[in-house]
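Risk mitigation, structural track. In case the binding assays with adenosine-5'-diphosphate fail to produce interpretable data, a predicted complex structure has been prepared as a fallback.
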Amino acid sequence: MKNYPIKRISLISIISFVGIFLMQAFWIIDSYYERKSHFAEHIHYILTQATDDFCIEISKQKAPIDSDFEQQLMASILKERFAQSDEMPSYRFQIQNNADPAPQLNNSKYINFSENIKCSRFHKKKLRLFIVNDKTYFLSSIIGWVILSSLFVFIGIIALFLNLSFLRKQKKTSRIQSDFIGNMTHELKTPIATISVASEMLMKDRVLDDRGKSKRYSKIIFEENLRLKKLVERVMQIALFENGTMKIKLTDVNLHDAIIQSCNAISMIVNKREGVLDMDLQATESNYKVDSTHFSNIITNLLENAIKYSPDSPQIVIKTTDYSDGILISINDKGIGISKKYQDRIFDRFFRVQDGDIHNSKGFGLGLYYVRRVIEAHGGTIKVRSELGNGSSFEIYLLKL
Ligand code: ADP
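Fallback model:
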C-alpha cells in the first residue's frame, strides 16, 4: 500500500472530527442562549403575574402599608409563583421607588430583571429581581446529550487511531513480505542457474569423458541442490508454525551431545574461515526433554549466524551453565554486533537489519524467528546481548521439565 492513502484518510478523518467538534460546540452555545432567552421570557411572565397579585393584595389592605409589609408580601407571592412554574433559580429581589437608581450589581454574577408595579396612581414602584447567573443551570437540560455525543466522538477518535495504526502495521508487513519475496527469488535464482549450467556441461561428451570435470560439476549440482533443500525446509518450517500444524516431539536428549554434533557439522566452515569454535559445556545436568531435530536446528542456526555476521575470522564460544531450574546455553561471537534499536525486532518474522553492509549477507530474516518459536514451544526463552561492533551473545534458557 502506498503512503498517500493513509495520510489522506488521516487528514479527512481529522477534518471530519474537527468539524464534528466545532458543530457540537456551536450547538452547545446555541442551546445555551436559546435556553437563556426562553428563561428570560418566562421570568418576565412570572414577574407580571407577581406584580398583579401584589396589587390585588395591596388593594385589600385597610391599614397603612409600610415597606416591610411590601417586602414580606412580595416574598411570599414570588415564592408561590416560582413554585408553580418549571423554573426554580436562586434569586433576590428589591422593591424600589421609581426614582431610586438601579442597584450596582456584578452583571456577570447576576441577571437583572425589573417590572413596574402600578397598583394605583399613588403607588408606583419597581420590582427588581436578581437571579444568580448559573451557567450550569442553563446547560442542565442538554448536559446529558453533551456527555453522550462527546463519548461517541471520543470512541470515534480512538477507533480511528486503532484503524490507522492497524493500517500502518499492515503496510509494514506487506513491505517486509515483498522484501522477502524479492530476497527469496534472488536466492532461488542463483542455485537454479548454477544447476542448469552445471547439468548442461555434464551433458557434453568432452566433459563426460573427463572424470575430474564431471565430478566437479556433479559436486556443484549436489551442493546447490542441498542449498535449495535447506531453503525450502526453512520456509516450510515457518509455514508449519504459521498454520499451527508443527508438532514438537519431546524425547530425552543429551543437550551436550546434540551441541557437540552441531559444532562438529559446522566446524569445517569455521576452519575454512580460519576461525575458532570453542565449547565450554559446564552444566552439570544436560539431559532434557526436547525435540531433538528442532533443538539441533536452532543451535545450527545460531552458529551459522555467528559465522555469517563475523566479517573477520569467526571467534565463537558456545557455553552451557546451570541456571535456577534449568540450563543456560549461550552462543557468543565477536562479529558485527546488533545496534540496541534492533535488538527487540531481530526475532520477528522477516526482520533483517538493513544498516551498513549487513544486507550483503544472504538471508530471509526467518532464522531467529524460527529459533524463538521453537524455544517458546519448549517453554523456554531467548535473549540477545549485543553491542554494535563488539559481537553478540544469544542466550537460551530452558527449563527442566
Ligand atoms: P537472516 O536470514 O537475515 O540471518 P535471522 O532471523 O537469522 O535472519 O537474523 C535476523 C537479523 O538479525 C539478521 O538479518 C542480522 O541483521 C541480525 N543477526 C542475527 N544474528 C546475528 C549475529 N550473530 N550478529 C549480528 N547480527 C545478527
